[in-house]
Design brief:
By secondary structure, the chain is an alpha+beta fold. Helix content is 32%, strand content 26%.
Length: 248
């Protein structure tokens, strides 16, 4: 069972996040997006990003595991084109963009695509690992040694991203290929969660709860910790059957 929650959060008047998934036999696709732009524009961009990526994957048949990374990258490029073209026909939507993090899964193989600062984590019985790397100003400062990981958590410019879907005709997409053999659960989240909830918090909640409960508890914890953004989470299982406690 897939757990999925998208919440407006404590402060915002509009939820500009969008999350959805598509499953067809042994092929599964999970996507999360965090929109940006003027009034309503972010909401439009994130919805197009998710729906266009799913649309592209649905067109394909008999997908081979070794082709999933290229296929997913092409799907995200297709979504980028859709958003960019839409932004040019309406002044209200001009300049809109969105993050996207998508996971395409078949058997024990997973391809992850990322643009922006939404995140993908894998969880085993003993650890949590962040697969994606943020395309953000703060991450650049960490990479150059200007600030520490701890300072990054509370940096005032955490919301500034350096790469987004839909803001230009072309976009670079990071692709990661993951072996799920030892993975129990996977988590996708927008930065509304990770700005306040630590990776250890995520691990502790996901490992002890089924997927739906884990999503609800993560969103609740994010709100308690004062998140000022929309909060979206998807949790899906790897080898755990019936979404039971993976620590047992």
């Amino acid at each position: 069972m897939v757990g999925i929650v998208s919440d407006i959060g404590n402060v915002r008047k509009l939820n500009e996040d969008y999350a959805d998934y598509y499953e067809d036999g042994d092929l599964k696709l999970y996507i999360i997006a965090d929109g940006m732009g003027g009034h309503n524009a972010g909401e439009v961009a994130s919805k197009i990003a998710v729906e266009a990526t799913i649309e592209y994957i649905k067109w394909k048949s008999d997908i081979k595991e070794e082709q999933m990374g290229i296929l997913l990258e092409n799907a995200v490029h297709y979504a980028n084109e859709k958003i960019y073209e839409k932004s040019k026909v309406s002044e209200r939507l001009s300049g809109m963009g969105t993050t996207i993090t998508a996971c395409l899964v078949k058997n024990n193989s997973m391809a992850v695509a990322n643009v922006g600062d939404s995140s993908c984590f894998t969880i085993t019985k003993n650890e949590i690992k962040k697969i994606t790397k943020d395309h953000s100003l703060v991450q650049q400062l960490v990479d150059t040694g200007t600030i520490t990981e701890e300072e990054a958590m509370t940096h005032p410019n955490k919301n500034i991203i350096t790469r987004a879907l839909g803001t230009s005709e072309f976009v670079d997409v990071d692709i990661f290929n993951i072996d799920l053999t030892e993975v129990n659960k996977c988590v996708l989240s927008t930065d509304g969660l990770t700005n306040g909830v630590t990776t250890q918090d995520i691990y502790n909640i996901v490992i002890k709860n089924d997927n739906n409960e884990a999503c609800s508890k993560l969103v609740e914890l994010s709100k308690i910790k004062g998140s000022r953004d929309n909060i979206s989470v998807i949790v899906f299982g790897g080898e755990c059957r019936d979404d039971r406690n993976c620590s047992k």
